[in-house]
Amino acid sequence: MQTIEIKSLEDLEKAAKSFLSVVHGSKTFAFYGPMGSGKTTLIKAICKELGATDMVTSPTFALVNEYRTNNGDTIYHLDLYRINSIGELYDIGYEEYFYGDHIVFIEWPEMAEALLPESFIHVTLEDTGMNNRLVHIAI
Question: Which backbone phi and psi does 45 adopt, to 5 degrees?
């Protein structure tokens, strides 16, 4: 288990760089944490470090956002908060996202755990107060 501390929004760039150095080469990431813990904010910073050229936003209503990087790679960002059954994951074609050759960030992955690849990285955000966050990465 690796832990990264974020003390303020100014720490996000450094935290994103640290995150990428810890997970080097991994493709599928499941982000856990309560509402408002900073999942989307951290994913935005990580996407920026990966060279995303598109605006990174929460896919809460779209379920899936697709971003391109400056070297032509694709990043998928899923928000499964509104998913009510595993059948809905089949409907959106989860296999393309979970088992493709691209980076995937999944917020609210609880419903999808049975379908995630074995190699997924478990990321938990913990709000420790006063805009501080701990990012726990289980590799």
Answer: -65, -40
Q: How many Å apart are CA 96 and CA 40, to the nearest integer? A: 21
Taking CA atoms, 100 is separated from 33, 103, 104, in Å, by 25, 8, 9
- The pTM assigned to this predicted structure is 0.94
**7-62 pLDDT, tens digit each:** 998 999 999 999 999 999 899 999 999 999 999 999 999 999 999 998 898 888 88
Whether 104 contacts 64, CB under 8 Å:
no
On the 0-12 / 13-18 / 19+ scale of CB atoms within 10 A, 45 is buried
pLDDT digits (tens, 9 = 90+) for 84-117: 999 999 999 999 999 999 999 999 999 999 999 9
Give Cα separations from 55 to 45, 102, 110 (angstroms).
Answer: 11, 18, 26
Half-sphere exposure (Cβ direction) of 58: Cα atoms closer than 13 Å: 14
Place of tokens 């303020």: 8
Taken in order of first residue, the domains within the chain and their CATH numbers are 2-138 (3.40.50.300)
DSSP-based three-state secondary structure for 64: strand
